[in-house]
Write a structure and sequence with these properties.
The structure is a single chain. By secondary structure, this protein is mainly α. 83% of the residues lie in helices and 0% in strands.
């Protein structure tokens, strides 16, 4: 009987390690995703025209772009907080809620954008091939990070209860 309990504890520790490893991987990839997207928005705010087919950005789009820069760097901070030791100082519900919010917003934006691009007769290739799936990728990364963050924290709580 004692051997069975040890095997179960060994399996739980092993799955926790895998969950933590995947969390670290997806957290850093989500961080890189956010930083890259933020840098692209900085390029556009500085007057870059790649992706705009040579057109200039309107004032409204410029303001939206500035907001997107702030949100990208906030998302990068959140992604790092999930995997860094200093992130443990932030309440878990804030990290969890903000990560799921990023997941939902990015997934909806990417999904609606892809659908809209497919319904238009003349879709700019850059939007359909790169930008819209990039939103969807961000949603998947933040959703996976939130799921792994929740499951690894739940597993740690279970292990602490079993030790008592």
């Amino acid at each position: 009987m004692k051997g069975v309990i040890l095997i179960n504890k060994y399996k739980r520790r092993r799955s926790l390690n895998k969950a933590k490893q995947w969390l670290v991987f997806t957290g850093y990839v989500a961080f890189a995703w956010s930083m890259l997207f933020g840098l692209i928005h900085i390029y556009w705010a500085a007057g870059g025209t790649i992706g705009f087919e040579g057109r200039k950005m309107s004032e409204v789009l410029f303001m939206i772009n500035l907001l997107a820069i702030v949100l990208c760097f906030l998302a990068a901070f959140i992604a790092l907080a999930l995997v860094q030791a200093w992130g443990q100082n932030i309440p878990k519900w804030i990290l969890f809620t903000s990560t799921w919010t990023a997941c939902v917003v990015l997934t909806l934006r990417g999904g609606v954008g892809i659908t809209q691009s497919m319904l238009q007769p003349e879709t700019p290739p850059l939007l359909f091939i790169i930008v819209e799936p990039y939103f969807l990728l961000g949603g998947i990364l933040f959703g996976l990070s939130a799921f792994l963050y929740f499951s690894s924290n739940t597993n740690m709580k279970k292990q602490r209860r079993e030790k008592i």
